[in-house]
Amino acid sequence: MYDREIVSGGGPGFAQAPMDLGPIDAADTIVSSLVHWARHFGDTQDYWGLAAGLPSYTSLGHAYRMTERAAGYLIAHGETIAASIEVLDFMDALFTPPGDTWTIGKAAAVYPTRDRPYRHRQPCPRCDRRSIEVAPPGDFQQETKYRCRWETCGWTPPYDELVRWRSYFDDTTTSKEK
After folding, report:
1. Largest CA distance in the chain
2. Which one of 17, 18, 134, 177 has the largest count of C-beta atoms within 10 Å of its C-beta?
3. Burial of 25 (0-12, 13-18, 19+ CB in 10 A)
4. CA distance to 32, 87, 90, per residue, from 71 (Å)
């Protein structure tokens, strides 16, 4: 019984973790990359070893503060970095790393911080089909957009009537039930 391994590490073919580890892996890669490049370009801030990755006990707040500090340094020294001979290596590491390495853009696409468009249950006022797509406000607080996705309809509310249509789509009853 004691001559064999009872517990083994993870990897292909092993049982999956009880939660999605993708966001944790993404955060680890992004934080360590930003910290590495900030230190590479002269930041003397002590990042408590985060260039090697996030320790398992790192709180979300701490990781955010360190990432914000490293990104702030890189932004503040952007002109110097842009003029350096290593700028291409820096840009490649952040935006086009090798293989399946996480980037901020990839993480934002896979784990969005805002709501995605969805199909509303209210019927289209023009074609009476349940094909209204609602595009929630984006990162810059744009207006919610409504559009019928039926191929021969394409209805969108006139801008000057947006408030009226918003109440129609936000209401829990359909106009036929009123």
Report:
1. 77
2. 134
3. middle
4. 11, 15, 13
Q: Give residue 96's Cα distance to chain centre.
A: 17
Q: Which 3 state secondary structure label does DSSP give 147?
A: strand
Q: Angle of helix 22-40 relative to helix 60-76, nearest 10 degrees?
A: 40
pTM: 0.56
- Render pLDDT for 16-43 as a digit per residue (tens, 0 to 9): 667 777 888 888 888 888 888 999 999 8
Residue with tokens 């559009």: 147
- The phi and psi torsions of 154 (rounded to 5 degrees) equal 75, 20
Residues 6+ apart with CB under 8 A from 139: 113, 114
Report which secondary-structure segment, H or E, holds 145.
Answer: strand 145-148
Is 148 in contact with 129 (CB distance < 8 Å)? yes
